[in-house]
Write a structure and sequence with these properties.
Elements (H helix, E strand, L loop, with lengths): L18 H4 L5 H21 L7 H7 L6 H25 L4 H9 L3 E2 L18 E2 L3 H22 L5 H22 L17 H25 L4 H22 L11 H28 L3 H15 L7 H29 L37
Antiparallel strand pairs: 1-2
Pfam family, one: BRO1
Protein name: BRO1 domain-containing protein
Family: Belongs to the BROX family.
């Protein structure tokens, strides 16, 4: 079973920032560090804005032979983040100074949204940029992009390096968890309409849960390859559904933070959830069949198909993935119904008499540990 693809979270864009044009350095060392900060951000800007003129061959040489675009992007982000953390540390130390507050507002930190619902009318006006006069808005958006890029890399290798892929998904979940708990609460006072959904704790929490679900999907694939017991596989697949149910509850909670979210994000969650619920119910039916409960197995499969028919995602590949699982469930159901008609003659229980599915969640986030280059910055204030 191939993983469903949802690459939208990494499709962010930003406007250029030149730190040394806004912040006045008191000494040459500080000026050089501000220039380095701008330079490291510039390569990220060029990549996500599709304005880079660097060829693939040159990029490979620049990044130590890395051929994967997502690996190159992770390298760029890892170079920028410790410099940004250090910059924020020194700005925080003098944040009450009016001159510093003026500088921060004049950085004009601007980002688009990749998971927001209110995109510009038919894209004729170009992407909408949100401007927030808070340096932690920059940190939040960069970390969101970092988590999305880790996730892209995990998807990229999910068919060939299962353990590494699961680890990257868990790392991405940890980045989003850190965002939700440590960074984005500082932006909570800003009106939801004036900032992108990516800068809200609720959406970061949703992304963390999605990454955990995806980490479990990869982990299950390894268990399937090793011919794990069908009863266990049923619980593991339903564990994926449990992660996604929690994500859906946040999105549907009615919170002011999550009013403006892309239908594609909702669609991805419901599609991935549907695929793994179907597979969970199929394994559960096989497990019950083996213990002689054919009637219960039939009831479970019928209910699984009824529920899946209610899901109709817009993405063609998501619909195909659901159809593939529905076909497998239908095939098993037809087989059991024939056997029951001619051999077992068991009564099929009503829906409220069917056993409730149970899920096992066996993956957890790898906590993100921010790195800060401890370099002194002295501003002329």
């Amino acid at each position: 079973m191939m993983m469903l693809q949802f690459t939208d979270p990494a499709k962010l864009k930003t406007k250029k920032i030149v730190f040394e044009d806004i912040f006045t350095a008191l000494d040459p060392g500080t000026l050089e560090q501000l220039k380095e900060l701008s330079s490291k951000r510039s390569v990220i800007e060029e990549k996500i804005n599709d304005t880079s003129s660097i060829t693939e061959a040159i990029a490979r040489e620049m990044y130590g032979g890395l051929t994967s675009q997502s690996e190159q992007d992770l390298h760029k982000l890892k170079q920028y983040l410790p410099l940004l953390e250090n910059f924020i540390f020194h700005v925080d130390a003098i944040c009450s100074n009016r001159q510093v507050m003026y500088w921060v507002s004049n950085l004009k930190i601007q980002w688009t949204t990749a998971v927001g619902g209110s995109l510009s009318f038919l894209n004729l006006l170009g992407p909408k940029y949100y401007q927030v006069g808070n340096i932690r808005f920059e940190l939040g958006m960069i970390l969101f992009l970092y988590g999305a890029t880790l996730r892209d890399r995990a998807c990229e290798i999910s068919t060939e390096a299962l353990v590494q892929s699961a680890t990257l998904f868990r790392e991405a979940a940890g980045v989003y968890l850190y965002l939700s708990e440590e960074v984005l609460p500082t932006l909570q006072s800003i009106d939801a309409g004036k900032k992108p959904p990516e800068s809200t704790s609720s959406v970061a929490s949703v992304m963390s849960l999605i990454c955990l679900a995806e980490a479990q999907v990869v982990t299950i694939r390894r268990a399937e390859e090793r011919k794990a017991a069908v009863g266990l596989l049923a619980k593991l697949h339903h564990g994926v559904s449990d992660f996604l149910s929690e994500a859906a509850r946040i999105l549907y909670s009615g919170s002011g933070e999550v009013k403006d979210v892309s239908p594609r994000l909702f669609g991805y969650i419901s599609s991935l959830k549907c695929v793994h619920e179907l597979r969970s119910q199929r394994y559960l039916a096989k497990d019950l069949q083996a213990s002689g409960q054919v009637g219960v197995s039939i009831g479970i499969l019928r209910e699984a198909l009824n529920h899946a028919r209610e899901i109709n995602p817009g993405e063609v590949t998501w619909r195909l993935a659901i159809k593939e699982e529905m076909d497998a469930v239908s095939e098993l159901l037809e087989k059991l119904e024939r056997e029951n008609e001619f051999v077992w003659h068991e009564k099929v229980p009503s829906v409220d008499q069917l056993p409730l599915p149970r899920g096992n969640k066996i993956v957890s986030a790898i906590r993100y540990q921010p790195l800060r280059y401890e370099r002194q910055l002295i501003f002329k204030i």
